[in-house]
Amino acid sequence: MKYLGFSTPGAGQAKTAQPYHKPPGAYLHVAGSSLSKGTSAVISAWEKHPEWPPLTIVANNPLVERPLPANIELRKNLSSKDMEKLWRRTSVAIIPSEVEGYGQVLGEAMLAGAVIITTDAPPMNELVTARRGYLVPWSEERPWRLGTRYKVTADALESCLLKVLEEPRDTVEAKAREAYLWALDNHQAFAQRLSMFIKSAAPQKTPLANRENADQHG
C-alpha cells in the first residue's frame, strides 16, 4: 500500500497571481445538497447579527428552507462558471463541516485565495491549520458510517466570526496566502506521487535485444 494523497480539480491550472489580495467583506458558505456542512449554525449565527456583512449561501437542501435574514442571499443550482465567479470575489469561506471525505470544498476555497473558517476536527483541521485559516471548536461527536461526525454550535461559530471580523487585514491575507501556497504544494506532491506510482505499476518492457537473445537460446 502506498500513500498518494488527494488534491482538488483545477489545482494544476491555478495561475492567478496573489489571489489572496481581495476586497474584504465577501462571505460565502457552500453546502450544495449536503446536510453536513454546518449550514444551520451558519444561518443561526448570522441571524443574531444584522450588522454583519452580506453572506452568500450556495445550497439546495432542506436546511435552507426557512426564513433567512436580510443579509443572507441564497443561491441554488449554480453552474461551474457561476461558482468560479463567486470564488473569485470571496474573501472568507465559512465551512464548519461536520464530516468530510477529502474536503474538496476546502481545497477550492484555498485555491481561490479565500480565508477559511472550518471545524477543528479531522480531516478539516488537517487541511486548514491555524496558520492558514480559523478553526472552530466542536461541541459534540458521534459515529458516522466509517468515521466521526463533529458538530459546531452557532455560539462557537459566532465567537470565531467576531474574531475574524476584528482581525487586521494583513493578518487575514497572510493566512490566505499560506493556504493558497499550501494547496499548490500539496497538488504538486500529489501529482509526483501519482506519477511515480503509475510508472512503478506499469508492466516493464523487455528490451528488443534481450528478447532476441532469449528466442535464440530457446
From TrEMBL:
InterPro entries xref list: Glyco_trans_1
GO MF annotations, alphabetized: glycosyltransferase activity
Domain Glycosyl transferase family: 66-137
Gene3D superfamilies assigned to the protein according to its UniProt record, in alphabetical order: Glycogen Phosphorylase B (3.40.50.2000)
Entry keyword set: Glycosyltransferase, Transferase
EC number from the UniProt entry: 2.4.-.-
Name listed for the protein in its UniProt record: Glycosyltransferase
